[in-house]
Amino acid sequence: MKRTILALLVVTALVAMLAFGVARWLRARPLELHDTVWLQHELNLTDAQGAEVAKLEADFQKKLADCCTAHCTARTDLGESLSDPTKAADCCQRMCAAQADSEKAALDHILRVRTLLTLPQQQRYTTLVQKQLSGPCVIRLHQP
């Protein structure tokens, strides 16, 4: 009898841990808003809409790559300028500007995609974007 109760407790604990892990994984899983195939399926886009979204996505990824290059260059320069506070501050300003440019590019991209969508698609897209923006911190410093 004691073995049966112990086995049930162990099985219950394992199932609870598995359920917790799956729920945590699903909550933290990023949305695939930059995967045009997923987005086409999720929003029920026409082929023409999908092609336009893919073009916008390619342009957006290029802008992000440019921002990343600017940010990484400034960060590398910062590492080499730590002994000069003026140069270091300039590097930080360049890093901040690159980050701001990437955020502006993201907003511009979201608004451009929305213009291609029907009203129901816009509503669904807005919901997906809001879910991504209100999700876990991307640098994992805090939970919303």
Short overview:
With 144 residues, the protein is mostly helical. The chain is built from five helices and no strands.
Q: Write down how many β-strands occur, each being a DSSP E stretch of 2 or more residues.
A: 0
Per the principal axes of the C-alpha atoms, what is the gross shape? flat
Sheet/helix structural class:
mainly alpha
Rg value: 22 Å
**Fraction in helix:** over 70%
Largest β sheet strand count, sense and barrel closure: none
- Count of alpha and pi helical runs: 5
- Average pLDDT, to the nearest integer? 86
Element order: H for helix, E for strand:
HHHHH
Which regions have little confidence, pLDDT < 50, spanning 5+ residues? none
Q: Beta-strand percentage?
A: under 5%
* Amino- and carboxy-terminal Cα gap: 46 Å
Layout of helices and strands, plus pairs?
Layout: H1 2-28, H2 36-43, H3 47-80, H4 85-115, H5 119-133
Notes on the structure:
By secondary structure, the protein is mainly α. It has a domain at 54-123. Helix content is 80%, strand content 0%. It has 5 helices and no strands. It has helices at 2-28, 36-43, 47-80, 85-115, 119-133.
Feature tags:
single chain; 144 residues; mainly alpha; 5 helices; 80% helix
